[in-house]
Amino acid sequence: MNTYRGKKDVVLIVDDSPDTLSMLNDTLDQAGITVLVALEGAQALTIAANITPDVILMDALMPNMDGFETCRRLKENRDLAHIPVIFMTGLSDTESIVKGFTAGGVDYITKPVKGDELIARMLAHLSNARLTLSARVALDSAGQFLFSAAADGNLLWATPQAYHLLEDAGLDTQWLSENLPTQLRQLLAPHFNKEKGLLIKAAEKALEIRYISQTGSDEYLLQLIDMERPSDVDRLRSALPMTERESEVLLWIAHGKTNREIGTILSMSPRTANKHLEQIFRKLNVENRTAAAVIALKHLQN
């Protein structure tokens, strides 16, 4: 097996079998990966809350709290929900596989685990998880109040800035769990005009929720708008002869993002981002990203 070279990742193994733990520990240690161990679900939740792992290998069948329930509880914690969970199971029937994905798992491997296959799958999911997390951090640092929801209106994730804006508007955790799903079901209904946005009358300030795109079979990307201040995208669009999408791409160019990163952030392909970039260059009469970024930053600073 090829030794993994690079940043030392942290993997949490959750399994009640000493033999499995020993084998996995040796395999991952040889690959240069730091291993944390939990013997059951409750212990895994405690460890993850204190030492955030990069990926979790989860045994499906354990006493007390099984792997499926443990995964569900992890995904309910917004600080841990981004961690990819790979199920390990001797169950290969369709029902068990579906149950693992429904609980929030990203993959599964059947026991006995093959070391090379495990490392390959882990590295693929780690790369995807890092890219997604990087996009969310970028969105948050730029003041983008984004969140995603399922078709039933339940909140899946949100940037810290979005949570702060909701709190500033006087909307607490109870409102998010009891009222937000009802509001979002209106916006996500097939007959709703998604170009309009949905006005939320909060106690402290008015907010608007805008539909951005569907990012999965049951996941929708949405944006919170503070009605008391224009967003950076709105400021660029009002100052420059560009569409909203072009303004979004230009904003991320100004933040130094590559086409691949912009594609991840805006849920588009790098090629589509490049097409928008060509239009931006033409409209701004510039020849490169640096010149376009300078123009954007000038308007944002003003």
TrEMBL record:
Residues 10-126 form the Response regulatory domain. The keyword DNA-binding applies. Pfam families: GerE, Response_reg. The modification 4-aspartylphosphate is found at residue 59. Keywords: DNA-binding, Phosphoprotein, Transcription, Transcription regulation, Two-component regulatory system. InterPro entries: CheY-like_superfamily, Sig_transdc_resp-reg_C-effctor, Sig_transdc_resp-reg_receiver, Tscrpt_reg_LuxR_C, WalR-like, WH-like_DNA-bd_sf. The keyword Transcription applies. Residues 235-300 form the HTH luxR-type domain. Signal peptide: none annotated. This is Response regulator.
